[in-house]
């Protein structure tokens, strides 16, 4: 992967890693603080509520998800400015905007929450697939596999509903089958950016 500015590339990776890490830690904390929360029965967005928030889980999830999206967007902009992966940067930046929307519009905000969540569910896995054009080695193959897997989960969730094979893990488990692989890919991609950039001489 040839990126003209090592500093931009590494900063993009570091920013993305911070975004993912703080989101994972905040979700873990919110799940443990939410009374009766079940990772099988509850969606991630159930951690946050606009009308009758359970605190501090709602604040943690909303803030962490907004920051997650913002740092993803900043990382995408830096990758774009580095001169590589313009299509990837656009899609990944869009996924960041959708994630910010999830943080702004919690699960009980009505249809707008569903729209921004669906936007992230689609844009983030597609970004993983497109990233195979700008990374080398095993990560390229893993990126495609992870993106396709998440899209398959998304397809069954909408087309099959309760008959989705992933509903075996519960509603919350099905959503995590979609979200967590992509977030783990983002962690690997961040590491790639921080450690594999070369100066284009």
Descriptive notes:
The protein has one domain. The protein contains 6 helices and no strands. The chain has 201 residues and is mainly alpha-helical. α3 (86-104) packs antiparallel against α4. Helix content is 70%, strand content 0%. It has helices spanning 6-33, 57-81, 86-104, 111-130, 138-159, 170-196.
Number of domains: 1
Indicate the low-confidence ranges by residue numbers: 1-5
**In terms of structural class, how would the helical and strand content be classed?**
mainly alpha
How far apart are the first and last residues' alpha carbons, in Å?
A: 13 Å
Mean pLDDT: 89
Strand content: under 5%
| Element string (H = helix, E = strand) | HHHHHH
Radius of gyration: 17 Å
**Which geometry do the CA atoms define?**
globular
Fraction in helix: over 70%
In short:
With 201 residues, the chain is mainly α. The chain has helices spanning 6-33, 57-81, 86-104, 111-130, 138-159, 170-196.
